[in-house]
Write a structure and sequence with these properties.
By secondary structure, the chain is of the alpha+beta class. It folds into 2 domains: 203 residues, GAF domain (Beta-Lactamase); 104 residues, PAS domain (Beta-Lactamase). 38% of the residues lie in helices and 26% in strands. The strands form 3 sheets. Strands 5-4-3-8-7-6 form a 6-stranded antiparallel beta sheet. The radius of gyration is 28 Å and the shape is elongated.
């Protein structure tokens, strides 16, 4: 554990933090090498994460221990709920803070609410030097019960976007040295970059899973194609409309289910759009003919949408029969 000195802050430090502190206030005394070692260790945890999930528990344990705090919390922004949710909680003496852990894990914090919400809103290091004097600290009663005194939080960010917050608490009064504040802010940017990359992958997996679930339940034919019109996905309903099973279509060109006289029109129109971004026809509710597996032309209503999947442009089409067709 790095050394934490029990010193009286200088008048300059007291002025900087605008807090009156006692002779027993703890002031961080970390060396440049300490900061470098911690940053390097965090980088290794994120880059060597075995399952591409954010290493929240290991990172929080490392930071809480190496920075000499009594309690740590790792919060992730849930973008659907627009709230911070507790992803990890750690203390070197866990039995001492069971109630605070229970309350923290059960809570969500909105933008600006509580210590983590304040770091989210300010996009900077936030210190609550005396939790008992803070009006914006909903967990106060439990923190007081377990004798927590000072709280600090810093955001995990990319640009202006905050993806999470890490918070620490101490039993004794504590003031951060300016160098530690600077380090935490820089570390938050470093962790934010890693968190964004991992979250993007997880979000993509979740989005794809949700898309597949909705598409399979749809009562219309759903196709996803790439920029060259190769079918990447087809739901099971395509068989009711076109006569092909999804397995027969995936990997083939979408022109397979078009009358021959429209195939070159589709290919030319798609290539033109990919090159210029200009559409020749509407993509919403267009009446067009399709081609059944048995060679029969069918009347359809077609809609298209454009999406990004893994950084690549794809198109999803929705087709339904314009009128009831014989089987």
């Amino acid at each position: 554990m790095p050394e934490v000195l029990c010193l009286r802050p200088s008048p300059q430090e007291m002025s900087k933090h605008n807090h009156t502190v006692s002779n027993q206030t703890q002031v961080d005394a970390l060396s440049a090498q300490d900061y470098w070692d911690i940053s390097h260790a965090v980088t290794r945890l994120f880059t060597e994460a075995p399952d591409e999930s954010p290493p929240t528990d290991a990172t929080l344990r490392l930071l809480t221990t190496r920075l000499g705090w009594d309690v740590g919390g790792f919060w992730i922004v849930n973008e659907l709920r627009m709230a911070l949710e507790c992803a990890a909680f750690y203390s070197p003496t866990p039995d001492s803070f069971k109630n605070f852990e229970t309350v923290s894990r059960a809570r969500r914090f909105s933008f600006g609410e509580g210590l983590p919400g304040s770091a989210w809103k300010s996009r900077g290091v936030v210190c609550f030097p005396d939790l008992g004097k803070e009006e914006n600290f909903p967990r106060l009663s439990v923190a007081a019960l377990e004798h927590l005194h000072t709280g600090v939080a810093f955001p995990l960010y990319v640009g202006k976007k905050v993806l999470g917050v890490v918070e620490f608490f101490s039993l004794e009064p504590r003031v951060l040295a300016p160098t530690t504040q600077d380090f935490l802010l820089a570390l938050g940017g470093q962790m934010g970059v890693f968190l964004e990359r991992l979250s993007a992958g997880k979000s993509l997996e979740a989005a794809n899973a949700q898309f597949l679930l909705v598409a399979e339940a749809a009562s219309v034919a759903v196709f996803t194609i790439d920029e060259e019109s190769t079918i990447l996905f087809a739901n099971s309903f395509v068989e009711q409309i076109f006569g092909y099973s999804p397995e027969e279509l995936i990997g083939k060109k979408l022109t397979l289910v078009m009358p021959e006289y429209l195939r070159h029109v589709h290919e030319r129109g798609l290539a033109h759009y990919v090159a210029t971004g200009e559409r020749h026809i509407s993509w919403d509710g267009v009446p067009l003919p399709g081609l059944h597996k048995n060679g029969r032309e069918i009347s359809l209503i077609i809609s298209f949408g454009e999406f990004l999947r893994g950084g690549k442009r794809v198109f999803t089409g929705f087709a339904k029969l314009r009128t009831t067709e014989p089987g």
